[in-house]
Amino acid sequence: MAVPTATSLKDIYTDDALEAQTKRWEYFLTTFKSEYGQQANFVSRSPGRVNLIGEHIDYSLYEVLPMAVEVDIILAVAVQPSSGSLKIRISNVDSEKFEKREFEVPDDGDITIDATSLEWSNYFKSGLRAGLQLLQKKGSKSELPSMDILVDGTVPSGGGLSSSAAFVCASALAVLKACGEENVDKKELVELAVVSERAVGVNSGGMDQSASVFGQRGSALYVSFKPTLSATPIPVPTTDPEITFVVAQSFVAADKHTSGPVCYNLRVVETSLAAVFLAKIFRLKELPKDSAPLGVSLRSFHDAYFEKHEGIEDNTKTSAEELHSQLQQLSQLVEDYLVQEEGYTRDQISEILGTSVDDLNERYTSTFPVRAERFMLRQRAMHVFNEAIRVHQFKGLLSEPPSGEGAANASLQKALGALMNETQDSCRDVYDCSCPELDELCRIARSAGSYGSRLTGAGWGGCTVHLVPKDKVEAVKAAWETKYYRARWPDISEERLKEAIVVSKPSSGSVVFKVT
Ligand code: NG1
Ligand code: MG
């Protein structure tokens, strides 16, 4: 499936947003012209995303259910015939915060990215790398031209809506278009953007890029990573009272890049170790290398376990009910066999794996160092299996909504909300990725009428998502305003408050806009 081309903003945004977007794009394209003295050839666009359910399980290769949101990153591009060296000039509409950059691309296309500095243009470079790799993979003869680029973003950075993935995907798309590629395959784009973003960020899974590229207006996305990446649109019912997802920022900056005990990369290590540890306990053969960040995942353990015990050779063909039951069995195995509540030391894990601590460190903690005395294998594996069950249940409910309006629809929303609440409990108590502020936003929302409230994204700060019946949205907003935002920041500006809470509908994904 190829990334579509749009010729009108109507193809991209909903009617409600059209007026504001038209103004934004006019300003954007005029700014491009005054900055570079010519008109842009095209604009590439990729949106942010909010995850509805399936938290911290993408890198264990379990299905997740995000949706694209309307906020996005856009890149206007003019290609320049290159005379000798290849130059990229990139500036940002918010030029105070993001200074203009200029760099050359070496002949071999090997762009260096200094991931130790938090530099905004790194995300473009990461997209550039993904784009060039895709061309190389396809054996394409097209050559990269020099590019003049202007960027504008409405996805708050560090706010849990995945501005980074939106930026990397829009950049890779811009590069491919600049090279003259007509049909950019969505799946190929996502796969390379995922790997490429790992070079500038954390050892993440593939949910964000999938949601950004595959987003579809009116639908959430059921994203699978096995046997290969795919995204199935799941329409969100619009019967009355309409399901409304509200996103609220905590304004706590989550620092995913630290190496401390509360960090993303440590969770990646813990879940990978849980997989190999369980495989050893159950005497499975060595788990095959998969597309998870460290090459091994709980999903691979899952499949290997049922291959050995039930002779299932291709578990991706198993029915939803059967998978549900498998996941319940696995959750029970964790309960019974990964018994150390206090976690496992490197010595204990190495002993079970039959390897040395040095080898263990080399294999699992050398790309992204983590500081931890103990690895909480029991808790992490437990969360992953139970969260994977909730994703299946959520999808099941959305796929077969009750016919009719009113009470039947309200009970669907309550059931969906209950699953989201369970996710929040598990993130807080078992996966340890919430924080007091996120918990508080959820509590306030629920007591003002939200059916389901939870953190979304990595957690430890960032964003929350809530399923709120339409007639309760104002009450929930008002409760946050007085009990959270104004209580914490009495002088908070109206602008900041507006930024804090966003009502989001499932929106369209990546697109190339032809400038005429
Ligand atoms: P955020 O924190 O929203 O960027 C991160 C990962 C996702 C996923 C979630 C947790 C990155 C780039 N993305 O999302 O892949 O693992 O956490 O579900 O780190
Ligand atoms: Mg991100």
Alpha-carbon distance between the two ends:
25 Å
Number of DSSP strand runs: 15
Radius of gyration: 23 Å
- Mass-distribution shape: globular
How many helical stretches?
A: 15
Which bin fits the share of residues in helices?
40-55%
Low-confidence stretches: none
Task: Please describe the biggest sheet, giving its number of strands, its sense, and whether it closes into a barrel.
Answer: 7 strands, mixed
Mean pLDDT across the residues is 92
Strand order of the largest sheet: 1-15-2-3-6-4-5
Structural class: alpha+beta
**Small molecules held by this entry:** 2-acetamido-2-deoxy-1-O-phosphono-alpha-D-galactopyranose, magnesium ion
Order of helices and strands: EHEEEEHEHHHEEEHHHEHHEHHHEEHHEE
Q: Percent of residues in beta strands? A: 15-25%
Written account of the structure:
- The protein is of the alpha+beta class.
- Helices cover 43% and strands 18% of the residues.
- The protein has helices at residues 15-36, 121-137, 163-178, 186-198, 207-214, 264-281, 298-310, 320-337, 346-353, 357-364, 377-399, 407-429, 436-447, 473-488, 494-500; strands at 5-6, 42-53, 65-80, 86-92, 101-105, 146-153, 219-224, 230-235, 243-249, 344-345, 374-375, 452-456, 463-469, 501-504, 511-514.
- The chain has a 7-stranded mixed sheet with strand order 1-15-2-3-6-4-5, with helices on both faces.
- Helix 2 crosses helix 4 (186-198), helix 6 runs parallel beside helix 7 and helix 9 packs across helix 10 (357-364).
- The structure holds 2-acetamido-2-deoxy-1-O-phosphono-alpha-D-galactopyranose and magnesium ion.
- Residues 162, 164-165, 208 line the site of magnesium ion.
- 2-acetamido-2-deoxy-1-O-phosphono-alpha-D-galactopyranose (NG1) binds next to helix 3 and helix 5.
- Belongs to the GHMP kinase family. GalK subfamily.
- InterPro entries: Galactokinase, Galactokinase_CS, GalKase_N, GHMP_kinase_C_dom, GHMP_kinase_C_sf, GHMP_kinase_N_dom, GHMP_knse_ATP-bd_CS, Mevalonate/galactokinase.
